[in-house]
């Protein structure tokens, strides 16, 4: 029934607007589910393709478009995260607001200012993390990826993206060794063994990462022999502890003495005087990174910030996602109250949205682009961001013809955005939700095009052809 509905919709197109009448979903394996939507931007009541558009699907990182819209509606363009250093006599206070860009260099600058203004002897340092509360990892984040950087904890105290880079080396005797820069206050051990590819497959053995709340990591399992190191990115397990240890290191480097402790919380101290304010880039630049690079930490810390500002309380995943729904409802008339939102990044497997709800978001963004200016922040197919190397977008006519946001989880491959005319102007909006995608592995080693790539190429050609047709029709209609 689904294939017939889609094919019927395609046959309604003007002849020049599509390359073939092929149903793109035929390329997807049995058992997969999908929702597709394609509609013109200049006819709000028309929908060309609508396949299961009211069914709920995990949005994955396409949710970041929703988060970006809420942020633009609720925060001023000159919004910046601020990290404030102040003092009372020889006590230092650093008040954090969840700046995902705050770096070790910025921290060092703060401490230099403290030394210049207060002196080299410090009694106590307070790290105020009370702007956020609750979980640092949202409900539904897969437990097995919590140790890697794209699932770094969403914390008020953030340093270097809550991420540490390292590398795993394989030795000739079958052992492995791991390297982490000496200045990073985490410990990593490895008992993993290196094997040939054949032995590794026969052993059904992969690398496994374990960690605790003290920023200790252990690598076990197997890895295929390598001539070059395997890059690793460790999500900081405890941002508070990590930052505290970095502060101690930087104090020593600056010749400063800490007599007391580094404490967490909001101190009740009289006569507190500001010394230095570190500000992030303004909101549009933060959203550009969030959308172009699909940065989860940016998205979730912005989400918690929305909750804090909208409800006047410490930000959390709970009030942040509630704020997103309310902001879209009250400021844009977009109703996504029935959606299930656990975070703002899309990393949670519990999130659920429909293609029609995403259509509302895309249409509002387009209709208000003169003030929102969000479309230009999204990746262009085959050109930049997370779409630069996507297999289905590397060649014409798809390359450069779509502006969109991708999203992927285990078995889920999504895309939503705009089809462009031959002048690069948006003419259509489209949504692609594919989940429960589990194709059989090829039986031969001969390179093949994956079912997903075949599906996407077919569907995106239809989007591109339709958008070009709309553009030509509009140009002919103009005197």
Show the helix and strand layout:
Layout: H1 2-11, E1 33-40, E2 49-51, H2 63-74, E3 82-88, E4 91-95, H3 104-118, E5 121-122, E6 124-128, E7 163-170, E8 176-179, E9 187-190, E10 193-195, H4 197-203, E11 207-211, E12 216-224, E13 230-235, H5 239-253, E14 257-258, E15 262-264, E16 273-279, H6 283-292, H7 296-311, H8 317-332, H9 355-367, H10 369-372, E17 402-409, E18 412-420, E19 426-435, H11 451-477
Parallel strand pairs: 4-6, 5-14, 6-15, 9-12, 10-12
Antiparallel strand pairs: 1-2, 1-19, 3-4, 3-16, 7-8, 7-13, 11-12, 17-18, 18-19
Helix pairs in contact: 2-6, 2-7, 2-8, 3-5, 6-7, 7-8
Write a brief structural summary.
It contains eleven helices and 19 strands.
Structure commentary:
With 479 residues, the protein is an alpha/beta fold. The protein folds into two domains: 256 residues, DD-peptidase/beta-lactamase superfamily (Beta-lactamase, 3-Layer(aba) Sandwich), CATH 3.40.710; 190 residues, D-tyrosyl-trna(Tyr) Deacylase, Chain: A (3-Layer(bba) Sandwich), CATH 3.50.80.20. It has eleven helices and 19 strands. A hairpin with a 4-residue loop joins strand 11 and strand 12. Helix 2 crosses helix 7. The longest helix is centred in the last third of the chain and has 27 residues. It is globular, with a radius of gyration of 25 Å. The N terminus is likely disordered. It is an enzyme of class 3 (hydrolase). One of its GO terms (biological process) is proteolysis. Belongs to the peptidase S13 family.
């Amino acid at each position: 029934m689904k294939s017939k509905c889609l094919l019927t919709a395609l046959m309604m197109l003007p002849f020049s607007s599509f390359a073939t009448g092929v149903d793109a979903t035929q390329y997807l394996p049995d058992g997969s589910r999908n929702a597709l939507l394609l509609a013109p931007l200049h006819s709000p009541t028309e929908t060309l393709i609508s396949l299961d558009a009211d069914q709920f699907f995990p949005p994955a990182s396409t949710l970041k478009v929703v988060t970006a819209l809420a942020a633009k509606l609720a925060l001023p363009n000159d919004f910046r995260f601020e990290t404030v250093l102040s003092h009372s006599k020889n006590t230092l206070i650093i008040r954090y607001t969840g700046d995902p860009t705050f770096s070790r260099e910025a921290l060092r600058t703060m401490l230099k200012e403290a030394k210049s203004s207060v002196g080299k002897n410090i009694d106590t340092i307070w790290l105020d993390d009370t702007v956020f509360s609750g979980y640092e990892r949202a409900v539904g984040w897969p437990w097995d990826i919590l140790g890697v950087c794209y699932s770094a904890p969403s914390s008020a105290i953030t340093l270097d993206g809550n991420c540490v880079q390292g590398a795993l080396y394989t030795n000739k005797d079958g052992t492995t060794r791991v390297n982490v820069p000496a200045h990073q206050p985490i410990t990593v051990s490895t008992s993993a063994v290196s094997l040939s590819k054949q032995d590794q497959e026969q052993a059904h053995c992969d690398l496994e990462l374990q960690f605790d709340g003290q920023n200790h990591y252990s690598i076990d399992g197997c890895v295929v022999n390598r001539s070059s190191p395997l890059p690793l990115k460790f999500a900081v397990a405890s941002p508070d502890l990590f930052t505290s240890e970095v502060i101690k290191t930087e104090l020593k480097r600056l010749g400063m003495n800490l007599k007391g402790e580094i404490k967490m919380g909001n101190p009740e101290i009289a006569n507190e005087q500001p010394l230095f304010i570190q500000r992030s880039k303004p909101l549009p630049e933060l959203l550009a990174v969030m959308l172009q690079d699909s940065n989860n930490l940016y998205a979730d810390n912005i989400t918690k910030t929305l909750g804090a500002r909208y409800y006047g309380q410490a930000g959390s995943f709970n009030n942040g996602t509630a704020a997103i729904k309310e902001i879209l409802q009250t400021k844009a008339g977009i109703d996504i109250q029935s959606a299930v939102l656990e975070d703002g990044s899309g990393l949670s497997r519990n999130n659920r949205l429909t293609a029609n709800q995403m259509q509302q978001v895309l249409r509002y963004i387009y209709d208000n682009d003169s003030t929102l200016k969000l479309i230009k922040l999204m990746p262009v197919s085959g050109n930049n961001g997370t779409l630069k190397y996507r297999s289905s977008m590397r060649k014409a006519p798809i390359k450069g013809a779509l502006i969109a946001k991708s999203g992927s989880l285990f078995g889920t491959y999504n895309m939503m955005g705009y089809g462009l005319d031959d002048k690069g102007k948006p003419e259509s909006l489209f949504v692609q939700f594919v989940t429960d995608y589990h194709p059989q592995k090829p039986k031969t080693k001969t390179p093949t095009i994956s079912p997903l790539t075949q599906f996407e190429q077919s569907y995106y050609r239809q989007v591109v052809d339709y958008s070009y047709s709309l553009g030509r029709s509009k140009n002919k209609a103009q005197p």
